[in-house]
Design a protein that fits this description.
The structure is a homodimer of 393-residue chains. Chain A has 393 residues and is α/β, with parallel strands linked by helices. Chain A folds into three domains: 75 residues, Winged helix-like DNA-binding domain superfamily/Winged helix DNA-binding domain (Arc Repressor Mutant, subunit A, Orthogonal Bundle); 136 residues, ATPase, nucleotide binding domain (Nucleotidyltransferase, domain 5, 2-Layer Sandwich); 158 residues, Nucleotidyltransferase, domain 5 (2-Layer Sandwich). Chain A is built from 13 helices and 18 strands. Chain A has a five-stranded mixed sheet with strand order 7-6-5-8-11. In chain A, strand 14 and strand 15 form a beta hairpin. In chain A, helix 1 packs across helix 3. At the A-B interface, strand 15, helix 10 and helix 11 of A face strand 16, helix 10 and helix 11 of B.
Chain lengths: 393, 393
């Protein structure tokens, strides 16, 4: 151990203690300084100093002497709703979306622009997203909410801020993080929308497993494309080249037709929105839902058949990954009343399991990914407040 | 921090330092004490003390002043081949096996008993395995090799020393770890044979990826049943209920016949050994190989068709898990000369990928699982020598 490394070690220690204290307040607040000290193993004076820094950075707020400790009134610490916020953005095949959520995960802004982005120029769509981002950032500023950063959900593969592959938009490589960053002045990261939807579902979906939050599951996100997010121990499973979880391209009909991905008989080709709408002879998802509600035979058959194909894919998912649950999101959640029975029957037929893991239905609709994006930014602050403090103007 | 916790902390520190030193010797030996100190960040005197303990426990050996450090001759430290060894055992559908490997992973004993275990009483098979284990332990004793424990590969699911589910043997619950432990006096653990085969492949298969050992892959193990082992970052991926990786029951023919598992159209039902042998109209794998070598049409068609089904399953595996490579083991490795082309074509057809991850062929044959079992025992000693020292008589 050399003398030179000591300041670095001290900074590292302070950073990890700030994270320890903020994490404890996030999990258990409102909570007194004394209890934070007891639960983190830090001394009361260390906790007081760290809390003072977090309060002056606006991340922690104090409330009156509500909580008491051995009869003595103590101020309670909580995450500060106005302290900082995350900007979640989403580019999807037929909409753009923005969400701002504060440190307590409360939504402070939400905007969706519905428009088919498939036949548009990339630059136009990016310009629209930048505009959506600017407007959202303006709303945050008007509410006095400093943004900690932005995360963009993309319908495909993104690496290091660049969109690499978008099967349904068929974009070239796009340096999207730079474009949004320059327009907003924020640090911007990109992530696959199916992975973010899975995280959104874990954080905001309210699902439980064995008395705690559900942390090992597969999330099916069906918008125009069908995506999947694999969550293992609370983290997204990405595979060796960040391509894991592509549920839409699991083979469900080996002799089936060619898919946009180049494969044959993929789930998305057999049970994607386009296939369902075309078989049901309706134009939009709203039309489809109405037709199902009205008991229209063609619509119900189309949805049931999609559910059966989905069950084939999920049987293979259960067999390979053994998750604690499957969560149906996006369009599949909307269609669940007419689809889930066929999916469950198909899972039973193909696994032989008498008690397969539960098939849960998301309540977040198509907001899961953009909320997961905003939540990702907020969690980076809570996991590493020192980095946030260092970046603040 | 209270005074009471200090002895425990001290013991924990010593345990982790013993592991640090032994791990360094395992990775880089023959190596001098000075270099171990430099690489672990421990003082030279700490290293000397820890090394003395590891030498007296027989885990580390010294060799003459071959390696030199700044011109000064220094004794070199290596893992001691005779220090301790692991007993690997395997119950499979048509054989029992035992392997003893020493600390350097060198095989010191190997025995396989070929006999179909499907129509036999559980007690008989267990008695045979116990006998195989006793003979192997006797050989280790005769070689002066103290055994650190045993690990049994089972063709199914085992939890806490009990065999829970064996799709092809159809056993009831069997407390196999106790049975083998009582007979041999060893600590015994059970593990799924497909997972152990994957570990065996990683440790002994000699595959590389981007200049290092392959640590993210899916291993296909085909004996009578078809199994799969998913390795992520060097560890077996088990899923929420230890059931992950069941490649044999991925759906490859949604309208296919019923499988022994209760599902329909599973890979094992369409491309398992029984199906291949029956379609090829031969009785044994040896017959099948001879028929393929002789260019027999029925045999080649049966193997090609199995390869095609395997490709459908692997396409879904690549899509969901995005591994760096796939390794064909067991019977699929034996059949690879006639099967792999069909498998690769089927993967290409179902993923549309122009450059899918490589399809590698195992050179370990049907020994991968039992070698993985012995390797598991040896690695427990290297990862936690303090626990081994505490258990020694």
């Amino acid at each position: 151990m050399t003398v030179r490394s000591e300041p670095a070690q001290h900074a590292g220690m302070r950073a990890s203690n700030l994270a320890l204290v903020l994490g404890e307040v996030a999990r258990t607040g409102p909570v007194s300084r004394a209890r934070v000290a007891a639960r983190t193993g830090l001394t009361k004076s260390s906790v007081s100093g760290l809390v003072a820094d977090l309060i002056s950075a606006g991340l922690i707020g104090e409330s009156g002497p509500a909580a008491t400790e051995r009869g003595r009134p103590a101020t309670a610490l909580s995450l500060a709703p106005g302290g900082t916020a995350g900007l979640g953005l989403e580019i999807n095949v037929d909409y753009l979306a923005a969400v701002v959520t504060d440190l307590t995960d409360a939504p402070r802004y939400h905007h969706v622009v519905r428009r088919d982005n498939r036949d548009r120029e990339v630059d136009e769509v990016v310009a629209d997203l930048v505009e959506v981002a600017r407007t959202a950032a303006g709303s945050a500023a008007a509410q006095g909410l400093p943004l900690a950063g932005a995360c963009v959900a993309v319908p495909g593969l993104a690496v290091d801020g660049t969109v690499i592959r978008t099967p349904n938009l068929r974009w070239p490589r796009v340096d999207l993080a730079d474009a949004v960053g320059e327009a907003t002045g924020l640090d911007v990261e990109l992530e696959n929308e199916a992975n973010l939807a899975a995280l959104g579902e874990m954080w905001f979906g309210g699902h439980e497993h064995e008395g705690g939050p559900l942390r090992d599951f597969v999330h099916v996100s069906g918008e125009i494309g069908i995506g999947g997010g694999i969550v293992v121990g609370g983290e997204v499973f990405r595979g060796a080249h960040a391509g894991a979880g592509e549920l839409g391209h699991v083979v469900v009909a080996p002799d089936g037709p060619r898919c946009a991905c180049g494969g044959h008989g993929c789930l998305e080709r057999m049970a994607g929105q386009q296939e369902i709408l075309s078989r049901a002879q309706v134009a939009t998802m709203a039309d489809l839902t109405r037709a199902c509600e009205a008991g229209d035979r063609a619509a119900l058959d189309a949805v049931t058949d999609a559910g059966r194909h989905l069950g084939v894919a999920l049987a293979s998912v259960l067999t390979l990954l053994d998750p604690a649950a499957i969560v149906l999101g996006g369009a599949f959640a909307t269609l669940a009343p007419w689809l889930a029975t066929a999916t469950e029957a198909s899972i039973a037929r193909h696994t032989g399991a008498t008690a397969p893991p539960p098939l849960l239905v998301s309540g977040l609709g198509s907001d899961a990914a953009v909320r997961g994006a905003a939540g990702t930014v907020v969690r980076r602050v809570i996991d590493d407040p020192a980095a946030y403090l260092a970046r603040r103007p």
